[in-house]
Structure formats: C-alpha cells, structure tokens
Amino acid sequence: MKQGHREEFFGAFAFQGPRDTSITLKIKHMPLYLASLNSGSNGNCYYIGSETEAVLIDAGISCRETERRMDRLGLSVNTVKAIFITHEHTDHTRGVEVLSRKHNIPVYITAATHKSSRLYLEQHLLHSFSSGIPVQIGDLSIHPFPKWHDASEPHSFTVSVNGLTAGVFTDIGSICENVSLHFSQCQAAFLEANYDEDMLENGRYPVYLKRRISGMEGHLSNSQALDLFTSRRCPGMQMLILSHLSAENNRPQLVLEHFSRQAMGTKIIVASRYGETGVFCIS
Ligand SMILES: [Zn+2]
Ligand SMILES: [Zn+2]
User: Fold this and answer.
1) Of the residues 18, 30, 90, 253, which has the fewest C-beta atoms closer than 10 A?
2) C-alpha 269, offset from chain centre
3) Can you tell me the distance from the alpha carbon of 189 to that of 239, in angstroms, rounded to the nearest whole number?
4) pTM for this one?
5) 131-167 pLDDT, tens per residue?
6) Residue 189 main-chain phi, psi, to 5 deg
7) Is pLDDT above 90 for 224?
8) Ligand 2 centroid to 11 CA: how many Å?
9) How confident is residue 1, by pLDDT bands cut at 50, 70 and 90?
10) Rounded CA gap, 90 and 112, in Å?
11) Cα 226 to ligand 1 centre (Å)
12) CA of 44 to the centre of ligand 1 (A)
C-alpha cells in the first residue's frame, strides 16, 4: 500500500505476569484491503491484500489497464505476489500472460484449467493448487474450493489473514455446500448478482443462452445471491460487493436497492464493468 491508504488498527490487552507485574501487550491486527479492478463479462480482476502483500483473483483485463487502475487506487503491482485463476473463460484470463511475465508474478491454475485456457505461462511462474488445500502467500492464506460453472475445473477462493477472510464468489451456476460454507466465513465478499430473472426471461437473448445463464452451470441471479446473503452471512459481515452484473439483464441501481433493504449492517457496494471500485478495508 502506498501512503494515504494506510490505517493502523491496534488491540490491547493486559497480561498478568508471574510476579505481580502487569505488562500491556499490543497486538497489531492486520487489516485486509480489497478492490474490484473490473467486474462483468468484459473482464474480472479482484485485488485482496494486506499492507505488504496481495493476490489478484483472476486477471481478465489487459496488463496495461490493470496497472493503470491499480495506480489510480494507490496500489502497487509490486505487492501482488500471486495471481489465482478461477477458470479458463477469457473474461478471467485475458491479462494473465503479460501481467505475469512483465512483473514476474506466479500464477496458480489447475492443470485442466491451464490446458483449456491455452495460456502460455512461463514454466517457473506456473503453480497448481488442489481443492481444499490452502496455499500460503506470505501472511495470506488462499483457500480454493470447487463450484458449479460451465468450465473444466471451476474454483472460487477465499483469502484470510489473522482471522479476517474475504472471498470471491462469481461465475456460479448453483449454490453448493462449498460455496455456502465459505461464504458464511467471510467478513467481506465479492458475490455474483448476474441477472434479474424477469429481465433475462423477457429479454432478447436466444432461448439457449437464457437456459445456459440460468442453468446449474451458469450464473447467479439477484435473488439467488440475496438468498445466500440473507441465509448464510456471518454476523460480523462488514462488506458485500455485488459483482459480475450482466449489462443486458441487470441494472446496478436495481441490485443496490434489492440488497440494501436487507443489508443488516453490512456495507453494500456494486462493482462496475466500466472501471475500478475504491479500495475497501476490513479489520
Ligand atoms: Zn465470468
Ligand atoms: Zn465463466
């Protein structure tokens, strides 16, 4: 993080020493910073990190645009220690090759997703991961889990540090127990609200595409996302960033109203397909 985005959080407790001496220990809590650099079928890239290190979940906009947007947010590409790829669709992979090569950033991608993506990645920057086995990147713990989507080996991720967890939950056809469980552990989440059911049904998409989007391996509707939020949100959930909105079958204002009514203290944001959000901090 560059100066201007720094915030310090301290918690203090009194430790009773063995010989009647009272020592006050200060425990520094490490906040998590998150931002969407772009969100939607035209490109997805989500930043999650601490003060000193970060990961990108997907890199679906060009390297140049990723750099430009991070720079505007006061985020340094040098803090990005890894890129994790959810699946091979180009709105999640477009910028990976150049970003990884130019900045020497390791890419975590399963073998099946790599094969389907046809990405050319430098061998020494190529890493795999397995469902359910966390990957440690500095202080950050990245937890991959499988989900339903029409890709070869689709995964989502949560990122944790010091008891704080943020997750990216996009490109999900139906909500399985993995998704529910990991969502319930998040203090902040990027959650797909792809389409309004009436707008999709009455819209101009061909029938096969409507069925694909609303099918088991498609995308989450506003009401599916709202069900997950209201039924499984953790009591201390600080922030919900609605993501991957369809340009054709949804409206940001509609999503904002839909969720704000049931926010119950959680800050509601809608990520844009035309630019970056701000940098948000949970602590
Ligand atoms: Zn997508
Ligand atoms: Zn997809």
Assistant:
1) 18
2) 13
3) 7
4) 0.90
5) 999 999 999 999 999 999 999 999 999 999 999 999 9
6) -150, 145
7) yes
8) 41
9) very low
10) 15
11) 19
12) 7
